[in-house]
Write a structure and sequence with these properties.
142 residues
């Protein structure tokens, strides 16, 4: 299984559990705790990160679906590069919507404070990472 496939499955598992932030909370008091940056890194094939098997197991128990382990057990056809690009595009859109909400609320008074900019910046960075992943997936798709 390549890193793009791991990212695709990690994203699907995290989404089934309510998103990456909720997964961080779910794992917080376990031996498999992961930081927010690491959890989001597992969603991107560019970061080359994978989740520990213990974290995968706990998250699958939480959502009640063997999303990742079933894929590993089946070793069936991996998601295509095109499917990964589509998934990245959806994730980019959702991330941009979060960024847009922060930007809209922060700019309602016509001023962006340094604190507001610091809150917005991580979302913009995630959008940019998704866009890079979309391009990479489309380039690899045949």
């Amino acid at each position: 299984m390549n890193i793009r496939q791991h990212a695709y499955l990690a994203r699907a598992l995290q989404d089934a559990c309510g998103g990456a932030d909720r997964c961080v909370t779910l794992l917080e008091n376990t031996p498999f705790a992961m930081g927010r940056t690491a959890m989001y890194g597992c969603r991107s094939s560019e970061d080359g990160k994978t989740m520990p098997i213990g974290a995968l197991h706990l998250l699958e128990l939480e959502c009640g679906e063997p999303i990742y382990s079933q894929a590993l057990a089946n070793a069936g056809p991996a998601p295509s590069e095109a499917e990964c690009a589509i998934s990245e595009a959806c994730e980019a859109s959702e991330t941009m919507a979060r960024a847009q909400s922060l930007i809209r609320k922060a700019g309602a008074d016509g001023i962006y404070t340094e604190h507001e900019k610091r809150d917005i910046e991580p979302e913009l960075q995630r959008v940019e990472a998704h866009v890079r992943s979309i391009r990479a997936g489309m380039e690899c798709a045949k």
